[in-house]
Amino acid sequence: MNIATAYVINKQFEKSIVGKTIKNVIANQNPHTFVWFAMKPERAFTDALAANDVAKYLKKKKIERADVNTGGYGLYNFLYTGERALISDIVPRYTSSEEKPVKKHQLLLEFEDGSYLSYSALLGGALFLFNVDESGDAIGYKSDFPMINSKKFALDFFNTLINKETGKTLSVKQLLATKNRIPGIDNNLLQDILWEARINPKRKIETLNKTEIQQIFKAIKTVPSAIISAGGKDIDKDIYGKLGRYPCRVSRNTVQKPCFRCKNKIIKEAYLGGSVFYCPNCQKI
Questions:
Q1: What are phi and psi of 102, to 5 degrees?
Q2: Taking 80 as the threshold, does the pLDDT of residue 22 lie above it?
Q3: Whole-model pTM above 0.90?
Q4: Which of 52, 55, 89, 195 is most buried, taking the most CB atoms under 10 A from its CB?
């Protein structure tokens, strides 16, 4: 999950979920090969039997608070319920007592006020229920990698990440959005970061000069904040099923449309098992 999406969800959790008590739980009604339940960090992504344990624990629990944290395999939304937190990178759907809940789901929380929170993954994701310490970090699953919106994620630190990969001929996309090298940046967020920085996702990091590295770093710091302020991107739905207001500069919605900056047409290409969107004029290879 990318950091912008996570914080948009977190704000909505604080508004609509925090303080509510869970009346009933349904787990794994519609099993998904790549949705993982776990009660212990050492069983993350391996436990096929934890769904019932997760449901049993959550029933009658109160959602005390919400937060965004990094974990062993990325960045997650945390819903705290006492000594444990429900940790997930799936965007859930919230329905009020006047609405019908989602029919297909891997986890459904029914609250005492008649509202629901349902987790229905498209590609997959985590539904972990781990113990947390006094700081709210998942015990045994904490990541020491700094959040990209923190002061610890500074330009010097970013340069160390680049220098670490010197000689491996990685592309910018590989560095930023593959193998969880930088938790909080995914292929979705990557597109607008690199458009803002005027860098092609296929560029090799060894070809970047000092100014270009600074441009990428600046975009990493500014673009997510703009997306959060707009309530998400205009291609992504929030927990209410509504699209955000941030106009994506490069996305499936802008392909073959004029670039916001130079008016050349945005293109889409297959790359590294996914798609990249960019302006061939602003983001030259």
A1: -60, 140
A2: yes
A3: yes
A4: 195
105, 101, 104, 58: which is closest to 83 by C-alpha?
58
Residue 74, phi-psi category: left (phi > 0), alpha (psi -120 to 50), beta (remainder): left
Domain residue spans in the chain? 3-131, 155-278
pLDDT band at 47 (very low <50, low <70, confident <90, very high): confident
Mean pLDDT of 49-63: 96
Q: What is the pLDDT of the chain when averaged over all its residues? A: 95
Structure tokens at 74: 């990325």
Fold of 3-131: N-terminal domain of MutM-like DNA repair proteins (3.20.190)
Give Cα separations from 134 to 71, 138, 170, 182, 247 (angstroms).
Answer: 16, 10, 39, 25, 39
Tally of CB atoms within 10 A around 178 = 18
In the prediction, which pLDDT does 169 show?
A: 85
The strands making up 65-71's β-sheet, listed across from edge to edge, are 35-38, 125-131, 84-88, 74-81, 65-71
- Residue at token pair 């704000």: 11
- Higher-pLDDT residue of 46 and 10 is 10
Q: What's domain 155-278's architecture?
A: Orthogonal Bundle (1.10)
How many C-beta neighbours within 10 Å does residue 46 have?
Answer: 10
What residues contact residue 179 under an 8 Å CB cut-off, 6+ apart? Answer: none
Length of the chain: 285
